[in-house]
């Protein structure tokens, strides 16, 4: 899927491309425009473990589709790694106020990697281990869920 915040382009499993503009989910209705044609349908959106499941009423009946966001992809990549002390996660939901490292940076235990704004307070999130920043799953201004992965480190070898 690609597009701007007001436009989403998707390729369906059958290879057909569609573009949705100005979509909104209000109560149990999804409305907007698809390829310029207005629509409004009954919709239910549910969160599954690693994706969103969208149930949409169509002329053929209720259909379901799975959607994976960029956050879902980051969560999946982070979970498939060693997923332990080398992963910095958000202790609670919040907004990323600052990312103080870049991929490839070497960090020590306790170095502040991310500053999270939660409940109107800034919280410095320290490196759980010494190592090298392998992946960054967030950016300044992102809103993150509690326990969302933020930074993946390659831990330093202990001798």
Descriptors:
1 helix; disordered N terminus; 14 strands; 53% strand; 159 residues; elongated; mainly beta; 7% helix; 4-stranded antiparallel sheet
Describe the structure.
A hairpin with a 2-residue loop joins β10 (112-118) and β11 (121-126). This protein is mainly β and 159 residues long. Helices cover 7% and strands 53% of the residues. The chain is elongated. The protein has one helix at residues 70-80, and strands spanning 7-11, 17-26, 29-34, 37-47, 52-58, 61-67, 87-89, 94-99, 106-107, 112-118, 121-126, 131-136, 143-144, 149-155. It has 1 helix and 14 strands. A 6-stranded antiparallel sheet has the order 1-2-3-4-5-6, with no helix packed on it.
**Alpha-carbon distance between the termini?**
45 Å
Strand order of the largest sheet: 1-2-3-4-5-6
Radius of gyration: 19 Å
Structural class of the secondary elements? Answer: mainly beta
- What's the multimeric state? single chain
Query: In total, how many beta strands?
Result: 14
Major sheet description: 6 strands, antiparallel
Tell me the β content: over 45%
Q: Helical segment tally?
A: 1
One letter per element, helices H and strands E, the order comes to EEEEEEHEEEEEEEE
Mean of pLDDT: 79
Shape type:
elongated
Helix content: under 10%
- Poorly predicted runs: 1-5
Task: Kindly summarize this structure in a few lines.
Helices cover 7% and strands 53% of the residues. It has 159 residues and is mostly beta strands. It is elongated.
